[in-house]
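Problem: given the chain below (1339 residues), write out its structure.
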Amino acid sequence: MSTSSGDAKLTALAKANRVLEDQLSRDASKVPDPADIIMGVSSSSTYAPAPSHAWTPFELRRTMMIPEELFSELEPTRSRCSMGLFPEIDRAWIALNNRLFLWDYVTSKDSLQSFPEQPSNVTYVGLVKPKTGIFIDSMLYLLILCTENALIVLGLAKPEAPTDPASNSQEFVVYDTELRFPTENVPMTSIVGTNSGRTFMCGITDGYLYELQYQATEGWFGGKSSLHNHSVSGVSSFIPSLFSSVSSEFITQLEIDKSRDLLYALTNQNTITLYNVAGKVTAPLQKIATASNLAKHAQTLCPPLGQTTINIVSLAAIPSDESSSIHLVASTANGIRLYFTTMRRTYSAYGTATTFAGGASGLELVHVRMGPSGLFDPRSIQGGLSDSMYRSSPSGMGTAGGKFAPWHLTMLNAGGYHGGMFLATQTTDEMEQDILLCTAPDLPRVANLKQPPGAPVAPTASSAPTPYYGSAPASTRATFSESTFLVPLIGKACAVAHLPAARLPTPPSSSRTPGTNWNELANQFSGYTEQFLVMTNDSLSVISKRRAIDTLRELIDAVRRGDDEGIVTQFFEQFGRDQACAMCLALACGNSFAISGFTQAPLSSSNAFAKPQMADVAVDEGLALAAKTIFYEFGQQPAVYPGTSTVTFSGRHEGLALYFARLIRPIWKSKITTGPTNNQSSNLSPSVLTIVQKDLQALMSFLDRNPQLFTPPGNYSLHGSVDGQFGAWKDEETSVAQLRELLSLTIEAISFIVLLIDYKLPDTVNLLEPSLQQKLQTMTWEELLTQQSGRDVGKALVTAVINQQISQQISIDAISEILQARCPNFCSTDDVMMYKAVESLRRAKETRSASERNDSLRESLRLLLKSTRNLRAALDEICADYRDLSFPDGAVLLPLQCANDWDADFQGRDYFASGSTSEQDPRRSAYETRLRCYDLILKTLSAFDDRFNAATSDVTEAQIPQDAAYRLALDSADPIFHSYLYDWFVAKGRTDLLLDIRTPFIEEYLRREPRSWEKCELLWQFYVNHGHFLNAAEALADLAEGRDFGMTLEKRIEYLSLALGNAKSHQASEYDSGHQAPVELLTDLDEKLEVANVQLDIYEQMKGFRGLGESALKEITALGTTLMDVNALYHRYADPYSLYDMKLLILKVSEHRDAQIVSSTWRAIFENCESLMSVCPVDHQTFLTLSILGQRLYPSDIAFPLDLVCSLLEDFAWDHRASISVGWAPQTLLEAHIPYEVIFEALYTLREAGQPPYHMKDREVFLISDITYLTNSWLTEALRLNSSPYSDPSGSRALVGRFPADIIDQALTQYMELLPTGAETEATRRLLGDMQQRIRARF
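Solution.
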């Protein structure tokens, strides 16, 4: 890289860094210190209703029942039980009488640990930090068991043996410290401790404040340990109850502020006392201030309180990283919160608080927060947590005349507070179900994010001197607004605790910024959501905070399910365009914490980023696509800010910059190394770096796949320069390119540092010059990537690591390969490899040793495969050398590798995938570059083919490289090359190869557009050859119905017949209830073939028509070349051209019932037979016509209604009785292969009905004669078959069927009675009698 280009790159990186710096700065200040919100007004009561479930601030994510083995220890009438939570160690404690159990709620098995029984009941358990220098170094916590008359101190230490880094929970070794403290029957509670190891508690029965004292040496007054009473003085302070008396005011709760070493003590009379507990001094305790008469003070600050009772039930310290000036929040039984400061305020001339002076010097109530109202009992809301709890909810909950039960906050007790989120449990009238109240800051209002529809977007700081963030100036005072949620619990609540969220490290600059804990917008891409644990007497519930990105995800899912897109617009209005775009981008990229941060947040923060599931988060492709679409459509366009020449970037640019900044926030300001100059190690663990890199890579991949998101629609130069849009687009494109450059380099830098960690970073650093070691010691990631000093250190580290590996007998090729693969911008070895490869190829051409030649050829190929970017000019010559040396590996594999490497941005691949053939497509050039590489391979195959064909003596020598070349070509994983190769096979007439080869690409090739008849033929033959008969059937059906190729109707029927045959050849075991598709295909093909055969019949009839017009001839041509459906066949051919038999056949095939059409068609057929009397005997023509029709139409009751046909036959026979013999009608039906029994039933029914004309005697006699003829024939055949049961040469057994002798006998008797006496009927009468005798004789 030249100096000028290097400088230009650094300049671009510096500009990109300024954009990120601006985003990080605004992120740190966007959510103000809670004091700025709270101190501005004396009271507040604003609560924002949740429009839908997606907007609710919390969700009950999981409920775990207490282990069943505990209940075996419980005696309902005699047991005393107390419970609590220790989220620091992933445990809940449960005391049953005199036994203590620790429940590991993270681990599914072996989760319960029991402790030895104590002499008296365990009343309370505390967990504190130990003092340093007293216990072993691995001691992490002290577990304090409070019994009715003593304290027992146990130690929890880190195991000496290393634990599984992917373990879900923490492991400890329990030590008995042998510290015992008698309490003289005063049980203790509310145990708290400082980070330095001081431990405080209060007595349950006396309400005094105690401190646990222990030391390594004996003290003056007593032994190494004692329990000091800070509520009394003198000797009695070491004896809990000997000289003490119970006061009317006593301490009920202690709260510790570990960040400031402040202790708060709450009494039963709502008095709060503040103590300074800094340092190791234990007595006397420094009392700073007492806040009393708080009800009156609260009423002064909030007049609407009136005479509301103020009964404080819990205290929560607000740490220094959350607020600089608000230090304590106290909650009351009715949901009111009181905020306190321990600092003195100075006032301006107008009486407004402006600043705070000094450290903790008092305790002042500064704000009263009213509890939420208008709530509904969550147990009365249908759907439970899926509905809002507010009367003002758009869902209309409050409009159903008391549909939902109202809920009032009373009897609140156990509470938890963190980061502005407040939880408290409320006792209900029901014995086994409490209600959990949850509130959280309403960030759109707290941070002034709301952006009204159509509001202009102000220029950003990266492009304007005075930045705005969102739509409101930074000086606008925020509103203290919260969202509220009620959760029904299982059981009675015992404890609420905040579960420390697993997050990537917080950079030093952010950790010193108050309000960071409230800013979930900045944290949601680098950590899991906040969670609270709620312990009841039955279960442990996990309450998760729903972040803004979780809300957006649910809203997008709702839109995907069909909801109105306006809910997404509302989200953009609430959070502002830039914030919402950043969140859309995170979802589109599949950000680790955006996808799983809410649903998969771990119950333990220990080793949270060492678990494999962090790398295997399933991405919802539909969600990602929807988020990308919203990102584009809502991102607007860059513009010139009104009244200035300053460019305002689009929301897409700002969302990209904001998301990028938040991804690198955990590392950007952090130092790369830590430790002394001569022993520097990584400041961040490889797991943290890998997680950051994973999301950066996902972002880079997204940008690579979607370049259109940051390019103007069409040719933006058409916008002209009048409105400045050309310049706005150009500036945004330049800025995005700079951000992408920095993004790519950051990914490589992380890979480089992780590689150095693997190669022992301290050893590598020690190889640097001392001056560079000192630079690295103070260098941040930002400096490494954006400053010249960072580039210098990077180059020096590359040199050092290569030298280090060479000293360990590792080749330069190995280390160069790794460096090039992981961080090519830090180390490029292409030139070196190219030189070595050419040298190896030269040796191969000059040597006479076959083994040396092969070794040199393989070495050259190995090096060339790694330096393909330098081969564009030399590839043809190198491949020619490989062909001449009969080295198929190089002649095939090298062009394949070049084809992929030269199309690194996948332009050629995308051109192929899109099916484009446009010469103007910008991707075509990359595609043609690929084809150039493929042509070299085809040239190699042709050369080896020619050598094989020309071989006369040693054919094997020519066949070996030929076979190897084809094998390598067919083993390629490049689908574009396979397509090109198969086209070559087809052009060479070698389709037999296509049918024999087995690659994963042949099927796709044969199915790929553009279709050809040859490919379609090959496709179904390919399926048949491979036993895929169902696929073959589908391909044949597609070919038969296709309009791409001109085919005759006969050919299409042939394809349909083949398709049906292949479908029937499909595995019979797959025709079960779980595989309906083959059955449906078989049915469909059968129906289409049947219709096609009808069409062929129509076509054959119409081909003989003469005297037709031009349009009719075109219709006949279409009939003989295109498959048609039954509607077209009927309405375009059968009906207009009076093809009566075809009309009936169509009705049968389509199963369409229309009695009127069928009747008229049959009558027309008989009339047509009448008209042909001059040509041939009418009885013969009708006989032939009906016999053929019957054979094709029977047994369809739609097209061949037997009652109608019999009636028409009888009418026809009667009309022509002079020329038609008796029995002609039933004989015609018999020739149609209609069974005797069916014909007999039809004729019998016809006579029995007696409908005209059969009410006349002559017609009845005629009909009886036909029935007699039919019966006689039937009887004769039945007797013949009975006499020869195994002989049926005529195949008439099916027609004869079962002979109902009794029924026939009765009918014959009836017919003999009906026949009139006379010569005309004598023959029939004799025949009837004869049949009756034969029936009675044989049956």
